[in-house]
Amino acid sequence: MTKLNQEEQEIFDSYENDEWNSVKTSERITQLQSYAKATLAKDKNITLRLSSLDLEALQAKAIEEGIPYQTLISSILHKYVTGQLIDN
User: Fold this and answer.
1) So what's the pLDDT on residue 1?
2) Residue 69: which domain range?
3) Residue 20: inside a domain
4) Rounded to whole angstroms, how far apart are CA atoms 56 and 61?
5) Is the separation of the CB atoms in 62 and 72 below 8 Å?
6) CA dist 66 to 42, 44, 69, 70, Å?
7) Is the pLDDT of residue 38 over 60?
8) Is residue 74 part of a domain?
9) What average pLDDT does the chain have?
10) 71: in domain
């Protein structure tokens, strides 16, 4: 299991203690679906030059994850620009 930081552990404990209440309404679901569509929309193409070694390594990682390598690259870039990419 991944080690949680203090904030993550507090959220996890709160969830485990049934301190969360559902806000499931049709309006909220519609709102969240529109957010998801906007976030996941891939509406731009780019050309990117990589070394063959980096590309081969990305393709190997993508195979391990069971996803296309373009999806992996897109995910890594998204995590980087949103501050979610964690350096181990």
Assistant:
1) 57
2) 55-80
3) no
4) 9
5) yes
6) 20, 24, 9, 12
7) yes
8) yes
9) 89
10) yes
